[in-house]
């Protein structure tokens, strides 16, 4: 990815470790979605990166909010989003979560028991709750049969009971939500998935007995992490979605179509920057010790652990794949060497690259890690060892900096 080298070096004089998010790249990513899709609305998954300036940048472009907690619902409220633009989807919502969410958002029920809890609390508060139902469909992202999952209500159960649930006095079931996969780079697979989702929506609408107001397709559109990754063909995907919207206009006349996006909006817009604190050799092997790696940006360390033990069954967003992060030492050194890059924690797990070839490193060098705009700071155990955590800096399109 591109980043402002001079700005990074200037900030590195003040901060030992930091994230830098570029608002221009976020806006470019959003623009590419808008240019490719017609008749589709987008929700930003705040769990990817909830930095307030990142949220403001995205919400100002008309995105709604996919909230994974009551705390994220509150973020949407603070930014002035209307309840119909906040969709609260998470398994295992507590009674206090549900009570606080009433009338602030559309609550996506994750189970039949949760629908009953929403009804109970809505009745006690004398309100009619706007509710969606998360479906665990009878198909996967690859088109195979349904699988057991902790998320949502199995399609068969939902089709049998939607009309019954809709009779609950304090509920208004207005839509469905499915989220089957993140970080998909195969355009055809996404096209096929969207087609199956429209068919599911028609089945659910028929079972409900009245028109759906929204269909949330979930996420899925990935970004290229490794140099060998190919980007999704957004133009082709958008044209396919437009054709599906036209095809199903008469069958789903009132349904708004949502696609969630977290990493697509912000993932390529961030870098993580730290310093080389030490360089040493042990039994002929060279090590570079960085500040704040596992406890600053954990995902490269997780990638190393997974690649040493692939039977660990890695999954998003903790692990994307090998070579998901670029390592860019900001040095004029032209000589290279094979080095293992570690962090300064007292654990052998604090490794981000094993025996990799990089420009020859020295103490004090600034070290940049790419693809740090989403699922980065939010996943990292920054309290580990009580070291000073990295700051997060947002550079808006006019060059103003906001430090968190």
Walkthrough of the structure:
The chain is built from eleven helices and 18 strands. It is an alpha/beta fold and 404 residues long. Strands 1, 11, 12, 13, 14, 15, 16, 17 and 18 form a nine-stranded mixed sheet that branches. An eight-stranded parallel β-barrel has the order 2-3-4-5-6-8-9-10, surrounded by five helices. β9 (214-216), α9 and β10 (256-261) form a beta-alpha-beta unit. The longest helix is centred in the middle third of the chain and has 22 residues, at 187-208. The radius of gyration is 23 Å and the shape is elongated.
Itemize the secondary structure elements and their pairings.
Elements: H1 5-12, E1 18-22, H2 23-36, E2 41-45, H3 52-59, E3 64-67, H4 70-78, E4 86-89, H5 95-101, E5 106-109, H6 112-124, E6 129-136, E7 153-154, H7 155-165, E8 171-177, H8 187-208, E9 214-216, H9 234-247, E10 256-261, H10 263-266, E11 270-282, E12 285-290, H11 299-308, E13 327-330, E14 336-342, E15 351-359, E16 366-369, E17 391-395, E18 401-403
Helix pairs in contact: 2-9, 7-8, 8-9
Key terms for this structure?
404 residues, alpha/beta, 9-stranded mixed sheet, 8-stranded parallel β-barrel, 11 helices, 18 strands, 30% helix
The counted number of beta strands is 18
Structural class: alpha/beta
Q: What separation lies between the terminal Cα atoms?
A: 23 Å
Number of helices: 11
What is the string of SSEs from the N terminus onward? HEHEHEHEHEHEEHEHEHEHEEHEEEEEE
Shape: elongated
Biggest sheet details: 9 strands, mixed
**Beta-strand content:** 15-25%
Mean pLDDT: 94
Helix proportion: 25-40%
Write down the Rg.
Answer: 23 Å
Assembly state (oligomeric): single chain
Task: Report the uncertain regions.
Answer: none
